[in-house]
Amino acid sequence: MKGLDKMRALVTTLIMVLILLACWGGFLVYTDNTSAVLSDHMDDVYGCAADSDWEGALKECDDFLEKWDMNSKVYAIYMEGVCVHDIELSAKRCRGYILSEDASLVMGESASILAHISLMRDNDRVSLRNVL
Description:
This protein is mainly α. The chain is built from five helices and no strands.
């Protein structure tokens, strides 16, 4: 009977570890897919600001904020809240700079957001540092 209990404990532990790894893998795929779309929008904001296309920059920034609103709720489940909050604040500041037509500040904020998104992807990777 003792051997059966030990075997049951081992199988239960293995199943839990597999569930944990599957969730981590799912979050990794989700982050890669959604962050690529978000990065594309911020790249477009940066390009529009460089060309002084304020209507295009505003549209891309609004699209980014709309997609961010949907995705940030999922990101908040498994990422640091500070990172999620920083990106949202930067995007809202970026939108304000677009409305004031300040190209250098828009480009700076969009570059900051792109760096945050890149760090977000790196922090979500399956690595020994992240596991421990």
